[in-house]
Amino acid sequence: MTVTSASAAASCRVVTGAVAVLLLLPASPALLATPAAASSSATSEGASEGASEVTAPLAGAAGRAALTRKVSARAWIVADARTGSVIAAHNPHAKLPPASTLKALFALTALPRVPGKSLRKVSKKDLAGVGSGSSVVGVKAGRTYRAADLWRGTFLRSGNDAVHVLAAMNGGWKSSVTQMQAKARALGARNTRVVTADGYDAPGQYSTAYDLALIGRAGLKNSQFAQYAATANSRFPSSTRADGSHISSYPIQNTNRLLTGANGIGRYRGMVGIKNGYTSKAGNTLIAAARRGNRTLIVTVLNPQQGNGLTVYREARALLDWGFKSVGHVKSLGTLNQPGR
Questions:
Q1: What are the backbone dihedrals phi and psi of residue 175, each rounded to the nearest 5 degrees, phi first?
Q2: pTM for the full model?
Q3: What is the pLDDT of residues 91-144, one digit of tens each?
Q4: Rounded Cα–Cα distance for residues 253 and 135 (Å)
Q5: Nearest-angstrom CA–CA distance, 21 and 101
Q6: 180-206 burial by CB neighbour count: b if 16+ within 10 A, else e?
Q7: Helices (DSSP H) in the chain: which residue ranges?
Q8: Phi/psi at 78 (nearest 5 deg)?
């Protein structure tokens, strides 16, 4: 998370080629319309500007149409994480800056290569590329960290410093970006272009509500990813060194308010996390998933145009509330596909 500038049923089309991909193609032109122009200035998270309350509309098809009027985000999507069925969406393929939600793709890509027990003595070179104004967890050059600590720093505090060190452990920054792009393509996230591994604003970097939901869904299938994404509170670094000796640490809390309930948002029942983000260019962004019974829903909310930095959580809550009420009462608009699993 950085703070720098830098409805009708749908059909699915099968695209043949090197990899078969199911693309969500809403029949309603409104769902693929050019998104409204972004506000010229973004409000930082927790700002005092008043935010209008978002209440979930009635369940079912009529409620789905009402969501577009009530949710101000430039793009959003609601999908079933188990089946991949998309039950509501607005501008799902609009290419927008993802901010730190892109860290979900980084984790999905690098976790198999950088397991939690791996150790790294951090150099100044590792931290040299951390962008101005980045959110950080407090990684210090000259200290040795477990990868698990760095992963918690990435998921909980959106630490760009932690991502830079993990990228160094993963073969380097450029290599990690290349791997992320390949992973996105393998998953079917064809409208994602990776320039920075941490989501820091960069020209030409974008993703979509559809792609980020697809990435989040894949992340939930990875047990390590799911564990880190669902962690609300921890300490950084862990309180002992690899040899068991004591080291000073401090508490850290996840910046996803739906997971922690912070700032008066309230913890969402069944929330299993994933990743939030903010940049002045992207606005507030969020991939969130919640489980109730045997049903897990995943939503993406990109850049709400009303309220303050907490609106993204209120709008995600409204989408999840509607989704749980509407499952089984609305037709699928398409499918999140993962051809490269």
A1: -65, -40
A2: 0.83
A3: 999 999 999 999 999 999 999 999 999 999 999 999 999 999 999 999 999 999
A4: 13
A5: 22
A6: bbebbbebbbbbbebbbbbbbbbeebb
A7: 61-70, 103-110, 124-127, 147-157, 160-169, 173-187, 209-220, 223-229, 257-260, 311-326
A8: -130, 125
